What we know:
Layout: H1 13-22, E1 32-35, H2 41-50, E2 58-61, E3 82-89, H3 93-96, E4 97-98, E5 101-102, H4 104-123, E6 127-130, E7 134-137, E8 140-149, E9 158-165, H5 173-176, H6 182-186, H7 192-211, H8 215-225, E10 230-238, E11 241-250, E12 256-260, E13 263-267, E14 272-274
Parallel strand pairs: 1-2
Antiparallel strand pairs: 2-3, 3-9, 4-5, 6-7, 7-8, 8-9, 10-11, 10-14, 11-12, 12-13
This protein binds biotin.
Amino acid sequence: MSQQFPSSIPPPADIADAVARLYPDPDLRPRIVYFPSVTSTNDLAARLADRGEPELTAVVSEQQTAGRGRLGRSWFSPPGAGLYVSVILRPGSAVLQTGSGPTTPMVTLAAGVAFAEAVRLCTHLPVTIKWPNDLMVEQRKLAGILTETSGGGRPDYLVVGFGLNVRSAAYPADIADRATSVEAELGRPVDRGPLLVQLLASLASWIDALRAGRREAILDRWRSLSPSARGAEVEWAGPEGPVRGTTDGVDRDGALLVRIAERVERIIAGEVTWL
Ligand code: BTN
């Protein structure tokens, strides 16, 4: 039996007003499908993509009951505290594939640049990116990105999920001293509507850059937003125990390069601790 599809509702006034203000022409407005509550916006976006929803459709929910983070973690998503957004991308085979295989990591890097720039533009906070794609203010995490594909060797679509802490909330103990929010950093209330609109516009623009083959521009911008990707001491779990090294940038596939004495290791996924 197919799972019941939750009902979307019109976006609340703060979001609808920001969209209307920034896109006076209704034909040019981003498509936002809004839900009061979902398990995970990434799930809903994938189901909508399966039903043929177009690229750049954004699923936004007031809360998530099973928000997902990287590495099988959950993403704390209480009502009213954050922006929980998933965007459908259909980048096409030219972008998703290269001679060396799928380049989903490039999409993820482009999304990191897009979201970091959008949050910087709207808030003027000194947001940086911590590999692979955490948005940070100094040592605290402001936002995370989870890119998922439709599976198979040639994915038909990708879902880029973005969680931004807008308002402070009673974070679970294990993240309380590592998380921050836009309002906590700015010390004042923040309108989330313009933030959402800017996030979507910035993503569209950087995905266009990817489609236009501007990979070096994306990598350059990512590197400039991620000072900790070069020259920082890190540790991760190797097959024979913890390994330490010094970050040495990212390669064209989005892998973190880490120098250990004379050799350079490529880290594709997994947990890396900055020391
Ligand atoms: C991470 O840093 O671990 C990634 C977090 C990604 C969270 C967002 S919130 C919207 C979207 N839906 C999810 O279930 N996860 C992403």
